[in-house]
Amino acid sequence: MSATMIFVNLPVKDLDASMAFWGELGYGFNAQFSDENCASMVISDTIVAMLLTEARYKDFTHKEIADATKTSEVLLCLSSESRAAVDALVDAAVAAGGTESRPAQDLGFMYGRAFDDLDGHTWEIMWMDPAAVQG
Predict the structure, then answer these.
(1) Which pLDDT value is given to residue 135?
(2) From the DSSP assignment, how many helices (H) and strands (E) are in the chain?
(3) How buried is 128 (Cβ within 10 angstroms: 0-12 exposed, 13-18 middle, 19+ buried)?
């Protein structure tokens, strides 16, 4: 059985700026599934964020597009391999134009920070001590 993939579709106001932002964080794009209206950002082998111009995003929904700078539409959480990696990614996001959306949460066995990207989508980055995870 193959792994289930997730494709997170996010509306963006400026596709080039969004690609530059995520590129600064070290993410790449799959050119096969990208064009002037969307960018296929590869997060992992099973996670892809489709950054869609608002016009392209509207092709997939009849609902109004949320203004993520004013309304929370989703919280996206990515795991990280260490506390230092959490800090490095969030610090890089802020340096690239994102904003830290809340103070760090340190529970000892779990550590996380969050940032809003250029369009206000909230990304939580978290590390959990593998010894604390029960299989």
Answers:
(1) 60
(2) 3, 8
(3) middle
